[in-house]
Amino acid sequence: MNEGVIMARVFNFSAGPAALPLAVLEQARAEMLEYQDSGMSVMEMTHRGKHFSAIHASAMALIRELMGVPDDYAVLLMQGGASSQFAFIPMNLVTDRNQTIDVVHTGMWSKKAIAEGRKFANVQVIASSEEANFSYIPAQSEWTPTPGAAYRHITSNNTIFGAEYHWQPEAGDAPLVADMSSNILSRPVDVSRYGLIYAGAQKNLGPSGVTLVVVRKELLGRNPDLPQMFDFSVQAEKDSMLNTPPTYAIYILKLVLEWVKAQGGVAALEQRNIAKADKLYAAIDASGLYSCPTRVDSRSRMNIPFTLADDALNAPFLAEAEAAGLVNLKGHRSVGGMRASIYNAMEMAGVDALVDFMADFEKRHG
């Protein structure tokens, strides 16, 4: 090891894969060559051995503890990313091709869920913010639910357009399914209000390669003829160990969950997330150069888009920000401008550095 190398870490505002807590990376580095007394890395060990079995069991227990998962729910660690769930969920929950899936359409990820859902059932868009470029979350009063729908699907936070639910939807007579990929563990959630919650790990839970699914057990086993790998009931029965799982991703997931607990749990992280978002939004709103396209009552705490008054300043902003150690701020083409993703692992110091840079840039270019 070259101990003379000075580590220069940037503030990473990527929407995903996203920043991980430094303490997690340091522990993973310390355990890279040998995990405990195993004589090998986690990446090298069998998933059936005692060391990984303990890692897996710890991750599962921490998910239940930190999210408050009731006993009548199964916790699954699936492969294929959250995008696979756009198909896996209708495969598991729809029992008749003539059934309807209700979707609240709030951006790209709900659009993908709609497209995949139509391969297995009718899909009804029961509310949408598309006419306003997905800049808000439609109120419950705007929903037009289908009686007897197989389930109702929402995306709890949209990474691209920066709109987030700040209220608990009522599903009515159908299970509520939520894609929580980009705000999982950022705030307390009453799991019992949902039929199924899913989230890709690479924003708030760990690295890419593993997807969390929390599903009410009474919803399992609706379609017994599914391929085993896609069948939630089989995955639950096998404790997500039907085949070789993404072992190292689950190990990092466990470390992140331990870090969340050490921070005081999800409620404590929520207060930090509120403070970070409030500071950045305040800087944007007080500016003459920057503006946020998202409606105030729907503004995300996790993904904050903002545009500059003159698009010609976008390239200089990004170049100067990167030189200052502030990276991955370019906004999605659907919105333009910039996007700062400030998930759980983003420290207040990163937000402070961004706010200071934005103020200095405005003085020089505004």
Task: Describe the structure in your own words.
Helix 2 crosses helix 6. The N and C termini lie far apart (46 Å). This protein has two domains: 238 residues, Type I PLP-dependent aspartate aminotransferase-like (Major domain) (Aspartate Aminotransferase, domain 2, 3-Layer(aba) Sandwich), CATH 3.40.640; 101 residues, Aspartate Aminotransferase, domain 1. The longest helix has 20 residues. Strands 2-10-9-8-5-3-4 form a seven-stranded mixed sheet, with helices on both faces. Helix content is 33%, strand content 16%. With 366 residues, it is of the alpha/beta class. The relative contact order is 0.16. The chain has nine helices and 14 strands.
Number of domains: 2
Radius of gyration: 21 Å
Which term fits the overall shape? globular
By CATH reckoning, the class of the largest domain would read Alpha Beta
Q: Biggest β-sheet: count, sense, barrel?
A: 7 strands, mixed
Query: What distance lies between the first and last C-alpha atoms, to the nearest angstrom?
Result: 46 Å
Q: Can you count the helices?
A: 9
- What ranges have pLDDT less than 50 throughout 5 or more consecutive residues? none
As a percent range, the share of strand residues is 15-25%
Look at the structure and give the mean pLDDT.
96
Order of helices and strands: EHHEHEHEEEEEEEHHHEEHEEH
| CATH homologous superfamily grouping of the largest domain | Type I PLP-dependent aspartate aminotransferase-like (Major domain)
CATH architecture classification of the largest domain: 3-Layer(aba) Sandwich
Content-based structural category: alpha/beta
Total E-strand runs: 14
CATH topology title of the largest domain: Aspartate Aminotransferase, domain 2
Oligomer: single chain
Major sheet strand order: 2-10-9-8-5-3-4
Approximate helicity band:
25-40%
Domain Aminotransferase class V: 10-354
Modified residues (N6-(pyridoxal phosphate)lysine): 203
Binding site for L-glutamate: 48
InterPro entries: Aminotrans_V_dom, Aminotrans_V_PyrdxlP_BS, Pser_aminoTfrase, PyrdxlP-dep_Trfase, PyrdxlP-dep_Trfase_major, PyrdxlP-dep_Trfase_small
